[in-house]
Amino acid sequence: MTGPDEERTAAEAGVVAERPSDAGGSAAREAEMFQGGRRRRGGEQTVVPEAEIESYYGRPVLKPPVWEWKIAAYLFCGGLAAGSSVVAAGADLTGRAALRRSARLGSLGGLLASLYFLVTDLGRPARFHHMLRVLKPTSPMSVGTWLLSAYGPGAGAAAVAELVPRRWRRTWPARLLQRLARPAGLGAAATAPGVASYTAVLLSHTAVPAWNEVRDELPFVFAGSAAASGGGLGMVTAPVAEAGGARGFAAAGAATELLASRIMEHRLGLVGEVYRTGHVARLRRASEVLTAAGLVGTLTVARRGRAGAAASGLALLAGSALQRFGVFEAGVESTKDPRYVVIPQRG
After folding, report:
1. Which of 63, 131, 134, 229 could form a disulfide with 320 if both were Cys (CB 3.0 to 4.6 A apart)?
2. pLDDT tens digit string along 143-158?
3. H helices within the chain, ranges in order?
4. How far apart are CA 77 and CA 81, in angstroms?
5. pTM for this structure?
6. Which superfamily is assigned to 69-346 in CATH?
């Protein structure tokens, strides 16, 4: 038999005996807390399942982009036009007439295609015109609209000069156009880097996680992709003897694209899952393989014959297109999972 005093003394002794283990048990309690375990006042432990982030009161955390595949095609064609303008300017300054002609026509074709895809996706052509009412340096869309407006006339004039029939070249309008072709082409080449990269800035300034998280690297990926496609087109369409500048430009662009893309994926956190899984990963893997193959071919077989040059150029063009589609699809996929929005903000 023990009295109340003895029971109280034993209880106090038990409390004192447990205190030395408190320090060692704190880590366990913290682990329980992070694993979802909670302890009630009476010491009873309950296991709370890890929260699943599915929606915000039944609604998506982010609204998926309303853009269709035409925007991805617009991204590729705009980059192709910009890269071709740089190749055309270099060919013009070095006296490579065949490469100059093919690159100028390629820049015009890429420009018209990109504008078609953009306007048809917007739904109303007037929306592009309305963007010209004001210039907002802080708005990538506004700056991009003005860049296209400055780039287009020069690229168009230089390309049209190549299309003038021989029998008309002695007329005064044709002679005037021929004189304007070089400054117009050089002007287009001067704005081409902005045309090639502004779309990356535009995408990364949205709330879409897969685009916003790569804002530092995406402009380099797009610029390299534009150079690879522009040089690749020159390799496909120009004689091997005149395509040396196109080969060098394509190789530099492909190397930049591959390196920047790897750095981009390496620095991504949770949202990197989007780029490394599913159909997005397949698109980007195919892009990487084609671009790498095109780069190797450009440095080896492209200078030996037309077949090797054409195959390498086509690989670079396909790799560039898949790069744009992969980035576009990654953005769309990242809006479907609220984890990519909520968890990074919890820090």
Report:
1. 229
2. 878 888 899 999 999 9
3. 4-18, 20-34, 69-93, 97-122, 126-130, 140-163, 172-204, 209-212, 218-237, 244-267, 272-276, 278-299, 306-334, 339-346
4. 6
5. 0.81
6. Formate dehydrogenase/DMSO reductase domain (1.20.1630.10)
